[in-house]
Write a structure and sequence with these properties.
Helices cover about 45% and strands about 10% of the residues. It has seven helices and three strands; from the N terminus they run H-E-H-E-H-E-H-H-H-H.
Length: about 160
């Protein structure tokens, strides 16, 4: 089982506790220089916490079509963490799904954002090993699946 917490961009104690106990932090960032600079500052603060075992990755969102979005490689270099996925803009589709009280993934399953979200979920599933649930059930680490999690947070 996975727990997903959508927390605000804040350095509050409650957020710190969640992040320090997480297996993976997926930082949602827009593809403009101001958002990337803010994310870099947030990551710098997180580096001072006891979050050394937390794997980090960025999810890039495009809330609106940008004339000149930052290149993915430049964002990855500036943040020094891997990009886990890119979610394309779809404001009208998101609004329609919300008005229909339906998740985007089922509202229009073949849309580009739905495809990108499913791909992101597969990437996250492979990044986060199920070691905790195995430890809780009494399984040994040798019996736990190896997903090749990497330490993106070590810079």
């Amino acid at each position: 089982d996975y727990i997903v917490a959508d927390i605000p961009t804040s350095l509050a104690d409650s957020n710190r506790a969640l992040i320090e106990d997480a297996a993976l932090l997926s930082l949602v960032v827009e593809r403009d220089s101001l958002a990337v600079d803010s994310a870099r500052l947030l990551l710098r603060a997180i580096d001072t916490w006891k979050a050394g075992r937390v794997s980090l990755g960025a999810v890039l969102v495009n809330r609106a079509a940008l004339v000149s979005p930052m290149p993915l490689a430049e964002i990855e270099v500036q943040l020094a963490i891997p990009i886990l996925g890119v979610i394309p803009p779809a404001a009208d589709l998101c609004a329609a799904a919300q008005n229909a009280h339906s998740p985007l993934l089922t509202f229009e399953a073949d849309s580009l954002p739905a495809i990108a979200l499913r791909a992101l979920s597969r990437i996250i599933a492979h990044q986060v090993p199920l070691l905790r649930s195995s430890a809780l059930s009494g399984a040994s680490a040798a019996q736990s699946p190896a997903h090749g999690m990497y330490r993106a947070g070590v810079r």
